[in-house]
Specification:
This protein is an alpha+beta fold and about 325 residues long. The protein has 13 helices and 6 strands.
Length: about 325
Amino acid sequence: MNGLELARGYYEEYGKPMLETEFSELLPYLAVGFVGSGSEHYGFDDDISRDHDFEPGFCIFLPGEDVVDRRKAFLLERAYAKLPKEYGGAKRQIMSPVGGNRNGVIRTADFYGAAVGSPDGALSLNAWLSIPDYALAEAVNGEIWLDNYGEFTRIRQSLANMPEDIRLKRLAGNILVMAQSGQYNFVRCLKHGEPEAAQLACEEFVRAAMKTVFLLNGKYLPFYKWSFRALRQMPGAEELADKLSDIILGDNRDSAVAQRKYSLIEEVASVVISELQDRNLTKAICGDLEKHAYSVNDAICDGNVRNMHILTAI
């Protein structure tokens, strides 16, 4: 049983009856689910993950104090604290988990304020351009099982749907990084006799390629620990994940391995270019990722965003 399954079962067996019996008058204002930081919110946790921040629990999200006042919130917190201490072979933690309170009663504004720096999810242009992919992923992952008030889901959906001009700016920047690191600098570093620098180029290429694939699919790349797992779970991306894995592994001092890596870099570039062309995101007709990056940037409607440095959102 992973963390999502544990949380869902714990809520259904204990949390839902508690809310319906003791807090029926608050139900119209509550959102309940399991969202936030940690592998368990993606369904990526395993036995090793249980060494920290793993417990049966779920999140109860509340609107502002003008809707649910402090006293009602306190009573709800106390009722949550009284729920069974063990479920599914896991025990509730006595102390708050590492990184702060992940479960229990949380104000919606506090959750989104911590996740993306905006209590109501409204992001400025600079915020959209600068918030890391993993932070946006944490704000929209997991599951929501109940949202009668609708506030939490409204914010969640607004963050999940990145403005198109921002998506294109991020795409353009990452595609350019792929061009510079993979198609250009990898080979140059090898020619300079710097296999370590060549490996850094591989890592830059792979990271940018994964962000590109996620952006093309309207998703956010999660924290690096789970990036390959998330990519492999994306429909149709298993072969691409294998190519990226081979690029990032292997000894660049072996000429055959290095040549194999460069061939894979070009194969990945070809896949990305095909996707850009199929989605009418580029007008370039060539195998040079740099030209496609600038073509994607040219498609941005907002002149201010389009004219920003192409790497602004990286």
